[in-house]
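4.2 Preliminary Data

To establish feasibility before requesting continued support, the project team ran the inverse folding procedure on a target of 141 residues. The structure was first converted into the token representation described in Section 3, and no sequence information of any kind was made available to the design step. The complete token record follows.
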């Protein structure tokens, strides 16, 4: 969806201006937006209260605040807090970034490589199961 001449947003999940993304019925309500801005274009988006967000820049660069102090280049991530309005100004060559927001689930995180669990013990079990080939469980039909 083009919001303006220099702004294109692909809604992956969640909704923007009445357009809903194709990914639905997730366990936790989240919003994933793929945002493309032409050179020096502006974009603003409000994050819902009690939701946190991040922007992962994968093309170009952008400033993620009104004062142009939070610059992020390609392969960098910018974090936002509860209900913050996100204001973006693309750099001289434009930018493309993934904007993700959702309500924190408040659970502990143990992370290792491609696996995320709640505790180190669960992580150890998961890697043991990966080695044995028993990590993926198939429910009988």
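Position-by-position output of the design step:
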């Amino acid at each position: 969806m083009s919001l303006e001449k220099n702004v294109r947003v692909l809604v992956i999940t969640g909704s923007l201006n009445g357009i809903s993304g194709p990914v639905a019925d997730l366990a936790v309500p989240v919003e994933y937006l793929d945002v493309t801005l032409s050179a020096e274009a502006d974009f603003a988006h409000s994050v819902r209260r009690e939701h946190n967000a991040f922007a992962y820049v994968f093309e170009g660069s952008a400033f993620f605040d009104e004062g142009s102090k939070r610059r992020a280049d390609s392969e960098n991530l910018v974090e936002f807090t509860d209900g913050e309005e996100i204001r973006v100004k693309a750099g001289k060559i434009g930018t493309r970034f993934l904007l993700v927001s959702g309500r924190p689930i408040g659970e502990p995180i143990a992370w290792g490589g491609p696996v995320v669990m709640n505790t180190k013990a669960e992580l150890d079990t998961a890697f043991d199961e990966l080695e044995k080939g028993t990590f993926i469980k198939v429910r009988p039909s």
